[in-house]
């Protein structure tokens, strides 16, 4: 069983709570960070100067949010679909602006 260090007090840091926090971290990792790295190859990005990395990250997050709020649950499929049909991607943007 893995060990861990926490700053939580014993009253706040029960085994159940720490497990929940740990699983919550991985849920975020799998939902956002891993998706960005797999679809956008984010870890290989050479944008490293100034505000560039933050701007690129904001664009990637906006793209993922747009796909998710449009009802797409298979993000990789939707990404490939709209990459092949850019005019439909533009209508997707317009549909979300109207809402």
Question: Which structural traits does this protein have?
Answer:
99 residues, mainly alpha, single chain
Helix/strand/pairing class, anyone? mainly alpha
Instruction: Provide a count of the helices.
Output: 4
Low-confidence stretches: none
Q: What is the domain total for the residues?
A: 1
- Radius of gyration over all CA atoms, rounded: 18 Å
SSE ordering:
HHHH
Distance between the termini: 48 Å
Range of strand content? under 5%
Note the overall shape. elongated
Secondary structure layout:
Elements: H1 15-40, H2 52-69, H3 75-84, H4 86-98
Characterization of the model:
By secondary structure, this protein is mainly alpha-helical. It has four helices and no strands. The longest helix has 26 residues, at 15-40. The termini are far apart.
Short summary of the structure?
Helices cover 68% and strands 0% of the residues. The chain has helices at 15-40, 52-69, 75-84, 86-98. The model has no long low-confidence stretch (mean pLDDT 83).
